[in-house]
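re the bet — no i am not wrong, look at it urself. input seq straight from the record:
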Amino acid sequence: MRPFSFFDHTGDVGVIVRGRSLEELFQNAAGALFSLITDRRRICRRLMEAIRVSAPDLESLLVGWMGELLFLFDARGLLLRSFEFQKLEAGSLEATAWGEPYQEARHCIKTGLKAVTYHQIRVEKQGGIWQARLILDI
């Protein structure tokens, strides 16, 4: 099972994310986001960041999660590589992320992401596998 794949969407990029658990789905969604931004293999685990997100439903929680990760990159230059969830349920999540600040000498920015959208978002469990579909504004 591939953790994520991309598809073209007019002026944007679409992402299909998969996971055996909800935690793995959210980890893979974060991996997809940072794979679009840079080469994730070049991100080191130099610092730790606590992340909390609340939302009324699972789809909004996924958008909020990815939006918070994008904010951490845009506002503070944080590139994040690995994620551990202390709490993950339909209305909220608490996670720890590891990564490092962007360094021009080490990291090449591949795609400039503007936002995570609600357009055509879907989160569902089929046959024991969680799957999400979402659109990112580039």
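see?? Residues 4-137 form a domain with the Archease, Possible Chaperone; Chain: A; domain 1 fold (CATH 3.55.10.10). told u. also The chain has a mean pLDDT of 96. so pay up
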